[in-house]
Specification:
Helicase, Ruva Protein, domain 3, five-stranded parallel sheet, elongated
């Protein structure tokens, strides 16, 4: 028995088998050298990084792929990366979020339709399969398709032929398909599941690859600076606090967190600037990041610090904020001759809210 074009990735063997028919004692006839070679290849591929695995699969553009991973793990970015590194890079990359498609129109969106096929079809339209001809079709959230549409999709991907809605003419399509889902593959029809699961890449959640947090944070900071026209910088030591948190929303949550932290830094810098002016260069400090981590934990339950050291730093910072707040209230009260109403107006607080803080901090005041 022999194999042509053999390679193995995470226990999956790819290749065309040729030679003698299968026998009952086939395992006994496989040479020891082949077993050793197979194990060495398997070990090599299992040791590949995620980036290396994506680059490897990209070259084999005759393979349809399935990206598995939690929400926010970067499946769209991975699909784009595979396309850019594949022989199809010069051809179209068409992305479709199946969760956004109406179940009544999903077939028309994917396969296209002819004029008069249904109410509102005033002219023929090319579907996503044809639009991606020669390139890559990325079907995100494919687990949201119902069973009937899964059956039609299976026929299209197996034959690489589609039929527009309202037409009886089958059209050949040369397209590589990359599926993506955060769901268990058991939600798919059995026949489609076997097709999709043949070549899969599992994207790890961010909590399992903390080495990616700092580079991603820098990328998001640079992106924010470019869009806002303001320079935001952060030291590596400051960004290290992000590695101590769980990112349950993965890359999407980290991006949102970094953008909000950058906004906090800009607002704080502008408040301290002279009237009518604004600071062009802003630093994203560890204290600010820890403060926002604490707020995120209080409001949403995520992200959460992973060790006692981060908790202690955050607690010290919160105490410093309280001390500053207490001092500011005391000084403003003195400035206004201990008049609570005027002090509340100057601090931007309600009178009732200021009184609550005064009592909490144990400050003496004249109740006007």
């Amino acid at each position: 028995m022999g194999f042509s074009r053999v390679f193995i990735y995470r226990g999956i063997i790819f290749g065309d088998e040729f030679g003698k028919p299968a026998r009952e004692n086939r395992a006994e006839n496989i040479s020891l050298s082949f077993i050793q070679s197979r194990n060495n290849i398997k070990k090599m591929f299992n040791n590949l990084s995620e980036t290396e695995a994506l680059a490897l699969f990209a070259r084999y553009d005759f393979l349809d792929l399935c990206l598995l991973g939690e929400t926010g793990t970067g499946k769209t970015h991975a699909a784009e990366q595979i396309h850019r590194q594949s022989p199809r890079a010069e051809k179209p990359f068409v992305a479709v979020n199946c969760a956004e498609l109406s179940r009544f129109l999903v077939e028309a969106e994917l396969f296209g339709y002819e004029k008069g096929a249904f109410t509102g079809a005033i002219q023929s339209k090319t579907g996503k399969f044809e639009a991606a001809s020669g390139g890559t079709l990325f079907l995100d959230e494919i687990g949201e398709l119902d069973g009937e549409m899964q059956a039609k999709l299976l026929k299209a991907v197996e034959e690489k032929r589609i039929t527009r809605v309202g037409s009886s003419v089958a059209r050949d399509v040369d397209v590589r398909i990359i599926y993506a889902t955060h769901r268990d593959l058991k939600v798919f029809r059995e026949d489609l599941r076997y097709r999709i699961a043949a070549h899969t890449i599992r994207l790890k959640p961010l909590r399992e690859r903390p080495e990616r947090i700092l580079p991603l944070a820098c990328l998001f900071i640079n992106d924010f600076s470019r869009k806002s026209g303001r320079s935001v910088a952060a030291s590596e030591n400051a960004l290290c606090v992000l590695e101590r948190a769980e990112w349950r929303g993965n890359i999407r949550e980290l991006r949102s967190f970094v953008q909000n932290a950058c906004l906090d830094a800009l607002f704080a810098a502008d408040l301290q600037a002279s009237p009518g002016g604004k600071t062009q260069a802003v630093e994203l400090t560890a204290e600010l990041l820890l403060s926002r981590l604490s707020q995120s934990n209080a409001h949403t339950g995520a992200p959460q610090p992973l060790n006692g050291k981060a908790d202690a730093i955050a607690a010290d910072y919160r105490q410093e904020i309280k001390n500053f707040d207490r001092l500011l209230i005391r000084q403003t009260l003195e400035k206004n001759n201990r008049n609570v109403s005027r002090t509340a107006v100057e601090l931007g607080l309600s009178r009732y809210g200021l009184i609550k803080k005064i009592k909490r901090y144990g400050i003496n005041f004249a109740n006007d």
